[in-house]
Amino acid sequence: MKRLLFLALLLLAFSVQNGFAETLGENFTSVLSIDSAEAGGHSELPSFFSVIPFVLLLLMIATGPLFYEHFWHKNYPKVAIALAAVVVSYYIFYLHNSHGPIHAFFEYFQFIALLSSLYIASGGIMIKVDKKGAPRLNVIILLIGAVISNVIGTTGASMLLIRPFIRLNKDRIQPYHIVFFIFMVSNVGGCLTPIGDPPLFLGFLKGVPFSWTITHNFFSWILAVILLATLFFFYDRRNKSVNPLFAEESDKEFSDKIEIVGTKNFLWLGVVVGAIFLDPVKIDWIPGIMEIPNQGYTISTLNSFTAEELKGVTTFSFIREIIMFSVAFLSFKLGSKVALRGNEFNFEPIREVAFIFVGIFGTMMPALELVAAFAASPSGSQLITHNTLYWGTGIISGFLDNAPTYLNFLTAAIAAQGGSITVSADVANFCSGIGFENSILQLTAISVSAVFFGAMTYIGNGPNFMVKSIAEQIGIQMPSFFGYIIRYSIPLLLPILLVVWVVFFAFA
User: How far is CA 467 from its chain centroid?
Assistant: First the structure.
């Protein structure tokens, strides 16, 4: 049955360019009929129907834990890889486009290197807070997490604080504690530096100055953090229930002491943060994998190219990722066993993220390419404003991974005014507003919405899945994919995102 399903999806992906596309997708594809250079240099755009594997993967992520939990938890790696293979095969054998899959692979490689190194290094640090959980103390921890997310990333901060946050509240822990943690620490908090969240990291790699985000995102960040903290405080103050899993803890006496075990792993976290700056785009003597137009890929340095050649060269680091994976290995092998046991550390959360996002990165290529192509087309470019970028980037970031979504909308915004994200001068001028109309506000809208809206679903940002998985392993009944959206994202987070838009973008 599984093989038949796989073959059926494969045949569907290869046949969508025919009669179905002519009848159902005629209007859509006509809008997307733009020059191949605007579409990223490929001979043709993917069919509208090539997004089916991506939609199917999202549906299975949403419904699997609800309706066929045993099958899903046993087979989600196979499902994710199979659906990604369908789209990759479609690109390579039908569109004759190897650029897209290779580019997606490098982006995934960067993504998983950063997440896994931060996850494993922070997993070897155990923070023991022997205090009674209370709304005010919880707010303080969430605010601390929102700040340090900008120093060690949302992944590092999430893995460092989620277990002590749960232990602190384990006699009264409820799903909303985890959800607000995802909102504030795993997403919104990391809006001030490129280290904070993967989309801002990709922007930094493309040439956005390191200090740009804190300069332009600060007031949006402080408003969102204060609103979320206030909302959580009143939510938490009403919680008088006792979690039956930890009922015996409710009468415990507390020493009010804070103890940190495994402090040497802070050094490993420092190595990861330092490695982020080992970027061949920023340091031209560091070797990287260079994608040269019409020539393919080679390991080289920027010193090897003339100024004219550099306009078309795309660079991917590998030194940085090798260091990050080395940190992941060494911090686990040399880390404190007491801290690892105390944190009940295991690899399942990062394993789940790794496989799920293989599927997401592999299947979302057509969706991102169609969105970017439409935005760069004459019809689409007329629609590009800071308001449409805020909501467009945000909504798609909630259901696709927010890192590539950020990059595609930034590409489209620059292309809409005749620039190119592959030209460093264009990126620099777009960030400073030189020669590009309203570009600073547009980039702010893209940056803020990509980070903030990443909290709308479990798959909007990598740490969301990790935090959910850790909570479920401890025994907390987390809401389903749709339950998270309906019970928390729409009624609690969306109004705050609306307020941010009204205050900073709607009338700008």
Answer: 14
> How distant is the alpha carbon of residue 204 from its chain centre?
15
Q: Report the alpha-carbon distance of residue 115 to residue 44 in Å, rounded.
A: 33
pLDDT (tens digit, 9 = 90+) per residue, 415-466?
888 887 767 788 889 999 999 999 999 999 999 999 999 999 998 887 898 8
Which amino acid, residue 182?
I
- When pLDDT is averaged across residues 14-20 and rounded to a whole number, the result is 33
Closest CA to 430 of 508, 419, 422: 419
Q: What is the radius of gyration, based on Cα positions, of the chain?
A: 23
Cα gap 218→193, rounded to integer Å: 10
Task: Give phi and psi for 262, each to the nearest 5.
Answer: 85, 35
What's the token pair of residue 292? Answer: 């040269």
| 348-363 and 365-376 helices, crossing angle to 10° | 50
Kind and range of the H or E element at 254? none
Per the listing, tokens 């996850």 go with 119
Sole residue written with tokens 């340095």: 301
**What tokens were used for 123?**
């997993």
Copy the structure tokens of residue 85: 């293979």
Sign of CA dihedral 284, 286, 291, 295: positive
Q: Count of CB atoms within 10 A of residue 300's CB?
A: 16
Question: Of 408, 406, 483, whose CA–CA distance to 445 is shortest?
Answer: 406
Q: What is the pLDDT of residue 245?
A: 58
pLDDT, tens digit (0-9, with 9 covering 90-100), for 225-241:
999 999 999 989 988 77
Q: Which helix (H) or strand (E) holds 201?
A: helix 198-206
**pLDDT class of 243 with cuts at 50, 70, 90:** low
Q: What is the pTM of this model?
A: 0.76
For residue 149, CA distances in Å to 270, 313, 487 come to: 13, 32, 25
SS3 of residue 289 by DSSP = strand
Which of 225, 246, 244 is closest to 180 using CA atoms?
225
What is the Cα–Cα distance from 123 to 411, expressed in whole angstroms? 35
Q: 126 φ, ψ to 5°?
A: -110, 120
Element (H, E) at 129: strand 126-129
CA 169 – CA 141 distance, rounded (Å): 12
User: What phi and psi values does residue 105 have, to the nearest 5 degrees?
Assistant: -60, -45
Residue with tokens 């001068």: 425
Largest Cα span, the chain: 72
Return the bridge partners of 259, or none: 128
CB 147 within 8 A of CB 192: no
> If you ran DSSP here, which 8-state letter would residue 47 be given?
P
CA distance 64 to 61: 6
